[in-house]
Amino acid sequence: MNISEAIAERHSVRRYTEQPIEGEILSELQNEIETCNAESGMRFQLIVNEPKAFASLLARYGHFTGVRNYIALVGEKRADGEEICGYYGERIVLKAQMLGLRTCWAALTYAKIPGTFTVNKGEKLYCMIAVGYGENDGTEHRSKPISELCRIRGSVPDWFYAGMEAAVKAPTAMNQQKFMIGLDHGNVKATAGRGIHSKMDLGIVKYHFEQGAQRKID
């Protein structure tokens, strides 16, 4: 599976089997997390075989079952922290999809279990990502039309359309899609709208767009 297939096929999954993440799959996932930490300056941590965090009342409210593995998105408190977590967290999510795992972003529906991960002084827990072998592959979310999520000045190259097709498949909090991608005579800029976790969503959307367009954006 390549990155384009992962973007198309990845959907949020909240129900997981008891199959452990182990062997080469575990090593590849951990290596991806370590690479993202080195590039981003964050300190994401993989927790495996820990069933309590997603067994709380909040987790049941979020309809999670069987979650035994998750990634704690921990990093320095900084103005662009949420966006960085979204960007690199989604990179890990798509890697997990390519490894045959399933995932779900979780902003509040989990409990913090002492001793499972560390948050140092000057850091914070931004978010968590449930990961494991899903009972199903999830379902596709409804997306706004591309025309509502971009503003264009000048001609539109094929790479921009490819980027937008990937961007509209990005997961966002409550499927709100509060973002805008502008194309101004070949220059691309993505901005977040107002909404819960919209800055984190922006990071997720940017990663999707860049994979589709095969170029960096501001």
Description:
- The chain has 6 helices and 7 strands.
- The chain is of the alpha+beta class and 218 residues long.
- It has 2 domains: 3-132, 3-Layer(aba) Sandwich (NADH Oxidase), CATH 3.40.109; 146-213, putative nitroreductase (tm1586), domain 2 (NADH Oxidase), CATH 3.40.109.
- A 4-stranded antiparallel β-sheet has the order 1-2-4-3, with helices on one face. Strands 5-6-7 form a 3-stranded mixed β-sheet, covered by helices on one side.
- The chain is globular.
- The relative contact order is 0.18.
CATH class of the largest domain: Alpha Beta
Number of domains: 2
CATH architecture identity of the largest domain: 3-Layer(aba) Sandwich
The arrangement of helices and strands along the chain is HHEHEHEEEHEEH
Count of DSSP E strands? 7
Regions with little confidence, pLDDT below 50 for 5+ residues: none
Q: Over the alpha carbons, how many angstroms does the gyration radius reach?
A: 17 Å
Shape: globular
Structural class: alpha+beta
Distance between the termini: 28 Å
Tell me the β content: 15-25%
Lateral arrangement of strands in the main beta sheet: 1-2-4-3
The CATH topology label of the largest domain is NADH Oxidase
Q: What is the average per-residue confidence, as pLDDT, rounded to a whole number?
A: 94
